[in-house]
Structures are given as C-alpha cells and as structure tokens.
Design brief:
Layout (H helix, E strand, L loop, with lengths): L9 H15 L2 H21 L13 H6 L11 H4 L2 E4 L4 E4 L5 H6 L1 E2 L3 E3 L19 E3 L3 E2 L9 H16 L4
Antiparallel strand pairs: 1-2, 3-6, 4-5
Helix pairs in contact: 2-6
C-alpha cells in the first residue's frame, strides 16, 4: 500500500514550488561557481601552488637569471589573464585557450628547434667562441605546474554556493 502525504499548508507548498524552480534553473549558481573558480585559479598563480597546495617546481637558476620577475608562469601575465569560465544551466568549464598552457599544466618536453637571430646577423652570448648564425636547441624539459583544478577548499565553496542558491531566503 503506497503512502501519500498531502500538504494543505499554502506556505509550505509555496516554498516547495520556489525550491523546485531554483533547482530547475541552476544557471545563476553555475555562474557564481565559475566566477569563484576563476578567482581561485588566479590566486594559484599568486601563491605559485597547485590545487592540492603543493608548491610549483622552482625555476632553474639559468631561467631565473633572464626573467623580468621571479614569479613562476607570470612573465607577461598572459596565461594567468587568459583563465576564463563558461557557465550554463548544467555545468561550468574553467580553462584557457593559450597554446602553451598544456605543457605548464601537465609538463613535458618542448620540440627541438633551430634558434636564429631576429635583430642582428648572428647570435652571441658570453662564453661563446664566436658569433654563430643559428643554434640547434634540443628542446627543454618543462616540469608540471598545475594551475587548473579544484582544491578541497574549492569543493567546500562550491557546496556553499549551491546551498545558498537552493536555500537562501527559504525559512
């Protein structure tokens, strides 16, 4: 025998109706989640840590010597500033369209390439025996420095955003 509960209280019925409408329209909550995750990702660049809180691999001294800043992955801020989100009623995507983002996220080896002068007729560096017209670079090993992802703190905040969306204003 099925059990049926009938609620005759108009206040409860109205609250349940509002709750159902909020659950059908998750776009505002998804937008808030996207904004939060975008900010959280930007903060990782400032903290130089991955989503688990582990510090990114340090730069080699030779790399550090030629950079404008000692911050990792923030030479021009292009990668950091490219982090965007897209939210709809069902999901949130956070990412970047910068081509070199993947090698920094996952690590790997860059392709071998020939380096040629762009402003002068030859290349020269301290310690070189003479100027040269080109150098064959074997590629560089880039360590993974994950910046995209969801931390435990992010998960807790996402749950708070969903709770606020569904229950805020409900008494």
């Amino acid at each position: 025998m099925p059990i049926e509960i009938v609620v005759e209280d108009s206040g409860i019925r109205e609250a349940l109706s509002r709750l159902a409408a909020k659950v059908r329209n998750l776009a505002p909550a998804m937008k808030n989640i996207g904004e939060y995750l975008q900010r959280s990702t930007w903060e990782r660049f400032d903290a130089q840590k991955d989503p688990s809180g582990k510090p990114w691999a340090k730069l080699k001294a030779s790399t550090l010597a030629r950079k404008k800043t000692s911050k990792i992955l923030i030479e021009s801020s292009r990668l950091r500033d490219s982090i965007v989100y897209h939210a709809d009623n069902d999901q949130v995507e956070v990412g970047t369209n910068v081509v070199y983002a993947a090698i920094h996220q996952f690590g790997g080896k860059t392709a071998p390439r020939t380096i040629r002068p762009t402003r002068k007729k030859a290349l020269f560096w301290p310690g070189a025996s003479h100027p040269v017209g080109a150098v064959n670079h074997p590629g560089s090993q880039i360590p993974a420095r994950p910046f995209l992802g969801v931390s435990d703190e992010d998960k807790a905040e996402i749950l708070d955003i969903i709770r606020d969306h569904v229950f805020l204003g409900e008494k």
